[in-house]
Amino acid sequence: MSSSVGTLFRISTFGESHCAGVGVVVDGVPSRMKLQPSDIQIQLDRRRPGQSKLSTDRDEADQVEILSGVENGLTLGSPIGLLVRNKDQRPQDYGSMVQIPRPSHADLTYRQKYGIHASSGGGRSSARETIGRVAAGAIAEKFLLQEYGIEIVAWVSSVGDVDAKAVDLSSVTRNQVDANDVRCPDLSAAQQMSEQILAARGDKDSIGGVLTCVCRNLPAGLGEPAFDRLEARLAHAMLSIPATKGFEIGSGFDGARMRGSVHNDPYTFKNGRLGTLTNNNGGVQGGISNAEDIYFRVAFKPPATIGLAQQTVDYQGEKVTLEARGRHDPCVVPRAVPIVESMAALVIADLALIQKMRHPL
Predict the structure, then answer these.
(1) Phi, psi of 13 (to 5 degrees)
(2) How confident is residue 326, by pLDDT bands cut at 50, 70 and 90?
(3) Rounded to 10 degrees, what is the CA torsion of 189, 190, 192, 198?
(4) What backbone phi and psi angles, to 5 degrees, belong to 162?
(5) Which domains does the chain have, with CATH numbers?
(6) Which helix (H) or strand (E) holds 27?
């Protein structure tokens, strides 16, 4: 099973939802970069469960431990090992479901592929696997900010049928995003989103949503022709996140409704360089960054674990009624914000190092 991604800035995550701990090995981090656990913890705190009534009740502090690759607060250039211990495990919540493939979960497909699957939680398909991604992404973000001034900000732009109004991509901040539990900078929409999430939770149901992300101050030249195009790498990264069902960049699917005369981004001279007047291409042309803002959207389905009774069958094909136990998010998008930011940072850091080898930025 492949649990690694990246070429020069490469990560390998490990752990299951109810094992002793989860974590990541990060390879390719430049040496002599200042790094403390607090640099990583800030994003893990935004991802962790139990933050509000909008998320799961599982109570995990998700405190990161740096096992290797850092000495006296400086990276050594060797692999960095990061560990977060699972402390609020309740595998007993899943005892009655061991013989039932839960609808829209990976229980059956893992068993079909490997002949076995984790008996509690989602195993490797659980969102707890993303702890390693977020921890590694925090390191990538620090590198990108120090080396290139790159900023990455994601936010919830819709929940159910509630859409937030457009925000200024050039100025939206994480402080604005974190001003409410939904992580939506449109306060009016955030209230409606919160009501929809709480209503789904009250009904023992779940609801989906969409995140928008902007990456600012990227230099031109990131991304490889053909198969490792910047938008292709971003799509691969985002669709590897559990519960994702869609990705679009720039004008996305709306662009398919336009004529070329409307969609084209004319050039102009600004800030001492050639740039574009509009940004329908989302900062990417020919798979390569053009120094405009990168922006994209990621769709998340409703969480598959719900408390409502569902009519299904067990592994022997016998009809059963499944009422899931355990502690689960009624909507994943508020906690997915740092995950999307982290995956974007990992992609961009890797492509930046690749480009630096070819032609210094």
Answers:
(1) -95, 155
(2) low
(3) 160
(4) -100, 120
(5) 4-358 (3.60.150.10)
(6) strand 21-27
